[in-house]
Description:
The chain is α/β, with parallel strands linked by helices. Among the domains are: 7-124, Response regulator (Rossmann fold); 154-316, P-loop containing nucleotide triphosphate hydrolases (Rossmann fold); 428-468, Arc Repressor Mutant, subunit A. 41% of the residues lie in helices and 13% in strands. It has helices spanning 16-27, 39-45, 49-52, 68-78, 93-102, 114-124, 154-167, 183-192, 214-219, 236-239, 255-267, 293-298, 304-310, 327-339, 351-359, 365-379, 391-397, 428-442, 447-454, 458-468; strands at 7-12, 31-36, 56-60, 84-89, 106-110, 173-176, 202-205, 220-221, 233-234, 244-248, 269-270, 279-280, 284-289, 313-316, 348-349, 384-385. The strands form five sheets. Strands 2-1-3-4-5 form a five-stranded parallel beta sheet, sandwiched between helices. Strands 7-10-13-6-14 form a five-stranded parallel beta sheet. A hairpin with an 8-residue loop joins strand 11 and strand 12.
Amino acid sequence: MTRNGQRLLMLIDDEPAQRRLVAAIAARRGWRTIFAGESETAIATLGTPDGMALDAVILDHWALDCDSGQLIAELRTRRPQLPILMLTANGSVAAAVSAMRAGATDFLVKPLASERLLAALETAVGGTSSGELRPLTEKLSHPLAFDEIVGSAPQFRAALAIAAKAARARVPVLIEGESGVGKEVVAEAIHAASPRSKKEMICVNCGAIPANLVESELFGHEKGAFTGAFERKIGRFQEADGGTLFLDEIGEMPLEAQVKLLRVLQSGEIQPLGARHTREVDVRVVAATNKTLIAEVEAGRFREDLYYRLNVVQVTIPPLRDRSGDVPALVRHLLGRIAVQPGLRPLGITDEALQLLGSYDWPGNVRQLQNALFRAAVLCEGDALTRTDFPQIAQLAAGKPESSAASQPATGHAGVTLFRPDGNLRPLEEIEADVIRLAIGHYRGRMTEVARRLGIGRSTLYRKLGELGIDQNAA
């Protein structure tokens, strides 16, 4: 930390625009950023006063003049406790896996979103209240259709039902929910279920674009429209013509750009910067925010007329802590998607690990759960994830009183273990015997009630007691 109390970040990157963006975002939380354009400069910096005061390092995988794993290993050798975050392109899972195995603390995906960068930095220096433990990959494979999205909680299914119904119409949809709940997953499902599904959904993260470039990014510009406009640029609205435009973090859009967005939504026409004429576009807009947008309207940070134009259909995704019963199914679903990534393999998970994951509140929601599983899968040496593969979660969960629901096994059946310690399923006979013992104990030996609740006859129940070697009195 520097003398004036600022935290110090070293960014290893040779791209000026990205340097400015990272420095500006980090400055919001009191970070000062120094830069290194190559590996030798980065290593040399460690021996300077600034280098000795470093709190974290971010390095761009594509900007390095050497193997990223070698640089990470060298940095780790010289400063074992220094947090190192890899910055990589979306979909470069193999590079991220290699970096983490070389000693990287974490990795971030471009284009950078301000909230995720700040959360990663806070976590790197020991802060956990801001949410995500490990802002890692944003997508693990193909988008999901509505019937493939995992979750059975009534509030969650109700939100999906609204989204599915809206998908068939052309109207704008506003998706609200905390960071990491899966707003983009729902947006992709809306697009896939719409008549526009043959076209690609164009995604724009409004929080990752510098304020002075938002209009150019959305509407395009002509050559010479402003300083630095050396060639004509097609805007995202024009790219999405005939399809869907997903505006993520819409609450971060500057007020000046909001005025032009409203005009486009009303008229169906765009006018690129520097252009003399407008162009008609047919675009279905789906917006998302982790803020309560009506509160932003009341605070004067978001236009009321734009809010009502976007909020024709509102879908509110509940946080994961409000649907903790979905955690076991989500874990197995996410592990299946992780397993097909380059450098990774199928893994089981023990009941003890599931119980730990089910007892945690997940402030970063499904994304945080995915990231914790991804990190554990990268570093796991066995055939199944165990409680010891989640040290950060165990540490955060320690000392927190477990609710009665959380103290139950994550399978949802108290006293019934579905998996062996090695992560493999137990034989059906063993599971069936445990269920019968549980029922006998729960209904206090009233065998008629036990049989009725299990959906079998009394004679069948007694036959199973004999076959499975269950002592009725000891059950």
